[in-house]
Amino acid sequence: MDGQTPKTSSSKKPNVAKSSIDVYAAQCDECKKWRVIHSEEEYEEIRSKISTEPFYCNKKSGVTCDDAADIEYSASRTWVIDKPDLPKTPEGFRRHLVARKDYSKLDTYYITPKGKRLRSRNEMAAFLKQNRKYEGLSASDFDFAPPKVMEDTVPEIFSKRGSDSVRKKIKMTKNEDKSADITGEEDFE
User: So which residues are the signal peptide here (predicted)?
Assistant: First the structure.
């Protein structure tokens, strides 16, 4: 086969889409500047306690509020904001976020230490029940809530979705005399 390795379906690697998050950042509670956080684990630690322990610039070594922001909030990239105080992902698991093609939202998955992708709290509960070595964990230790996509940073090609991200659908219904009634129906995603 010309020295190439054939691709097979028996690969042990999970077939998981690449995470849509390329930079983690936290906003200083004092100066409101954004600071890049260098690892997902460090970001999750900050996020899990943000209400009780606000983030300040000086939590980064050698950084003060007088320094320029690490990153500016702008439409040069799509921003998403996580809910505050989400629990830190349990050790061995990974929280995985993937943007939908239209940037309408991110889907949240958890990757198990065995490489299995779980899409819901029910799937997580079933996995934990089948794997007794994770006995100290419960499905409530995992939050599948997606971060909020900041609409003002979504690429323009996707942001023209109607007023307030509401799509109007025209629905044709036939009545008894075979004429058509047109009704507007709002579809909230």
Answer: none
Cα–Cα distance, 128 to 110 (Å, whole number): 12
Q: Are 158 and 140 in contact (CB under 8 A)?
A: no
Q: How far apart are CA 79 and CA 156, in angstroms?
A: 14
- Number of Cβ within 10 Å of residue 102's Cβ equals 13
C-beta separation of 73 from 110 below 8 A: no
Residue 51 to residue 49: CA distance in whole angstroms: 6
pLDDT tens digits, 43-93: 999 999 999 999 999 999 999 999 999 999 999 899 999 999 999 999 999
The model's pTM is 0.70
In terms of C-beta distances under 8 Å and separation of at least 24 residues, what long-range contacts does 147-152 make, across chains too? 147/80, 147/81, 147/82, 147/83, 147/97, 147/106, 148/80, 148/81, 148/82, 148/83, 149/78, 149/79, 149/80, 149/99, 149/103, 149/104, 149/105, 149/106, 150/78, 150/79, 150/80, 150/81, 152/75
The correct answer on CATH 2.30.180.10 for the domain covering 24-156 is no
Percent of the chain with pLDDT over 90: 61
